[in-house]
From TrEMBL:
<dbReference type="Pfam" id="PF00535">
    <property type="entry name" value="Glycos_transf_2"/>
</dbReference>
<feature type="domain" description="Glycosyltransferase 2-like">
    <location>
        <begin position="3"/>
        <end position="159"/>
    </location>
</feature>
<protein>
    <recommendedName>
        <fullName>Glycosyltransferase 2-like domain-containing protein</fullName>
    </recommendedName>
</protein>
<dbReference type="InterPro" id="IPR001173">
    <property type="entry name" value="Glyco_trans_2-like"/>
</dbReference>
<dbReference type="InterPro" id="IPR029044">
    <property type="entry name" value="Nucleotide-diphossugar_trans"/>
</dbReference>
Length: 269
């Protein structure tokens, strides 16, 4: 939040925190301070549902554009939002994603490719921050079929038009992929830019899905993504089918579900 308040060069920011059962005394004290600085705190005392949290924030926002920004994002340079806004204002663009880095300067997210390991995954995970990447992909603003909502900018009216993220089918996982694919269906582009760089300490606040219940929920959401999009997206329209998908794979490369009922997204490449 301090990065948005003091390290982001953009006028008239409306900052909203959707508070999902925070109990830490220091954090609650910080929330009280933030209220005096114009930040809105929306209590959400219900079980964790990532899709719902974003939908609530979008509903209460009043600006023309909304930025979905996770609480584990760190700002690296003040012009990141201006870069993303310069792209999302184009009438043919539906949403814009950012270049997200691990703290060790490795790329965590350079867009999402459909069909990686039978489902969908972040790309560029084996690149260093300044590596050119395959065909210079790490240095090029380009179209993707999806981007993560850990940091995503889009028009608020578009978000409401598509009814935001699917809170029922995808409460935790793949809600961003599903939403971006629905935006694609409207004929609008999802863009990714390497010129908006941020650190994303993924799962730092919430932890990994390591319990049996969480694993079962994750598998259910994977199957639901396949059932909705598996036939429509046998090939990623933003990634040439003649190119090998292996360049995108790294230590954070998604998982293989090609043996699941219903086939696989991108099956057959």
């Amino acid at each position: 939040m301090e990065g948005l308040l003091t390290q982001t060069d953009y006028p008239d920011l409306e900052l909203i925190i959707v508070d999902n059962q925070t109990s830490d005394p220091q954090t609650l004290e910080y929330f009280d301070e933030l209220k005096t600085r114009g930040v809105r705190i929306l209590p959400h005392p219900y079980p964790f549902n990532y899709a719902t949290l974003n939908n609530v924030g979008a509903e209460f926002a009043t600006g023309e554009y909304i930025g979905l920004v996770n609480n584990d994002i760190e700002i690296l340079h003040p012009d990141w939002l201006k870069e993303m806004m310069s792209l999302v204002v184009r009438p043919d663009v539906g949403a814009v994603g950012a270049k997200l880095l691990w703290k060790n300067d490795m790329v965590q997210h350079a867009g999402v490719v459909i069909g990686i390991n039978g489902l969908a995954a972040h790309t560029g995970n084996n690149w260093l921050r300044n590596d050119p990447g395959y065909l210079g992909f790490n240095h090029l603003a380009r179209r993707q079929s999806a981007c993560t909502t850990a940091c995503l900018i889009l028009r608020r009216d578009l978000y409401l038009q598509i009814e935001g993220m699917d809170e029922v089918r995808h409460p935790v996982a793949f809600n961003d992929v599903d939403m971006c694919l629905r935006i694609n269906e409207l004929g609008l582009k999802i863009l990714w830019t390497p010129f908006a760089e941020l650190i994303h300490a993924e799962s730092a606040s919430r932890g990994k899905d390591s319990t049996a219940d969480k694993a079962a929920r994750s598998k259910r959401e994977q199957n639901l993504l396949l059932s909705r999009w598996g036939r429509s997206y046998r090939y990623d329209p933003a990634y040439h089918p003649s190119l090998n998908a292996d360049w995108a794979l790294g230590t954070y490369a998604g998982m293989s579900f090609s043996s699941m009922n219903g086939g696989a997204l991108g099956e057959g490449r």
